[in-house]
Amino acid sequence: MKEGPDIAHIAALIGDPARANMLTALMSGKALTVSELAEEAGVTIQTASSHLSKLDAGGLLRPRKQGRHKYFALASDEVAHVLEGLMGLAAGSGYLRKRTGPRDAELRQARVCYNHLAGDMGTQMFDSMIAQGHLTLDGEELVLTETGTAFVADFEIDIDGLLRARAPVCRECLDWSERRSHLAGSLGRAFLSRFEELSWAKRDQKTRVIAFSQNGAKAFNALFPAS
Amino acid sequence: MKEGPDIAHIAALIGDPARANMLTALMSGKALTVSELAEEAGVTIQTASSHLSKLDAGGLLRPRKQGRHKYFALASDEVAHVLEGLMGLAAGSGYLRKRTGPRDAELRQARVCYNHLAGDMGTQMFDSMIAQGHLTLDGEELVLTETGTAFVADFEIDIDGLLRARAPVCRECLDWSERRSHLAGSLGRAFLSRFEELSWAKRDQKTRVIAFSQNGAKAFNALFPAS
DNA sequence: TTCATGGTTCGATCTTAATCGAAGCATTTG
DNA sequence: CAAATGCTTCGATTAAGATCGAACCATGAA
């Protein structure tokens, strides 16, 4: 009589108010730090840490370390889907949660992050490459597919040179404004310098802002269409 | 911080092992009495009664009194849908209550999910109907096409009656074992009872297994060929 | 190096709620 | 009517786990 998945364990994970608040906050799709999630849930950081490791052990979260921060996001669409279903059951009409307020508009749109493109356009490029099948997530590792390699070569980036070098070619980097992934690694850097080479974009050395020309932005959007 | 639907409360309801067992038992679609559910959950009748009134208060159940018996069934397709989703998450993270045995294989192949067909054969039926153009996905919504209506009527299902009723006819339901959609809604239920009517299949009353006869399976495969 | 910051681990406390015995209703049957 | 059955309510016990202070670890900055 006791066959099948242990639904009680998973439901109990979601069933604690503090954890439910955290999960709800993560429904935005953004990754949040431990302290931010503690704040959202209204508990201390120790408590939040304990909750988050439980949620992680239950497979509901996808943690990523970056520097001395630890970011958490929902593990998959399925998790979000179940949470949505639960909200429906809870007879939910409009549930609104405050989003991170808009900061400096230019910095948010496009800026330099370790020599690669970050900000709104960075995440757009990343998402688009995933959607087009140029990049794919193999577990924790980000890999360039066959079509991706062709795509990059077509853009006149010396992909063979990058591959020969020992540095990691593709890396995910979490965006501080968007809280979503963008492309880092040697390929990320190559893309940015190619944009500059083509005069699509120009960096401001003092502010980290990247200014795209009108034509550059148009070309960029053609190459990396937003879904 | 108390605005919006209280997902923690409803998840906590599902999160107790005894209650989860009861809900899982009700996934068969049958209405069960308090004592049967107590047996299923492995608790005394008093305890079961307490659990059931909580589940009812949470809107997860639909109780019906009949003489001195009280029957409980799941409140809606949505509830069943969320439960299946939770099973998917639990199965994905490897939290199985029991290891995969012979019974498990049967469950994967064909089982009852709130009175409709789930498991391998459920997804096969769903995929086949999509492939044949009987069903189509209009955005988020699943709709029965013109040829689909004819197909269903041809199978001697009272489609007009279903359409007149207010309940949703076609719904997607995500399968926890297959991780794919199968057909739910009143049409899904009609199909399963028609299979039983034709003696193609028979449900096991204790488990959720659906056993197809040899001829039944043959006829099923002819009607819903796997791509 | 030292300091500051973000996160984790440990231990003790305390709240919540699951559980069941016993008694109380309600309905059917004899 | 009384007896039997199915379920609910009450109360006391008990076990689980949420919480936070304090100490600790790791990373980045000065």
UniProtKB/TrEMBL annotation, chains A, B:
PROSITE patterns: HTH_ARSR_2. InterPro entries: ArsR-like_HTH, HTH_ArsR_DNA-bd_dom, HTH_Metal-responsive_Reg, WH-like_DNA-bd_sf, WH_DNA-bd_sf. Transmembrane segments: none annotated. CDD domains: HTH_ARSR. It comes from the Bacteria. SMART domains: HTH_ARSR (SM00418). Gene3D superfamilies: Winged helix-like DNA-binding domain superfamily/Winged helix DNA-binding domain. Residues 1-94 form the HTH arsR-type domain. PANTHER family: TRANSCRIPTIONAL REGULATOR-RELATED, TRANSCRIPTIONAL REGULATORY PROTEIN. This is Winged helix-turn-helix domain-containing protein. It comes from Roseobacter sinensis.
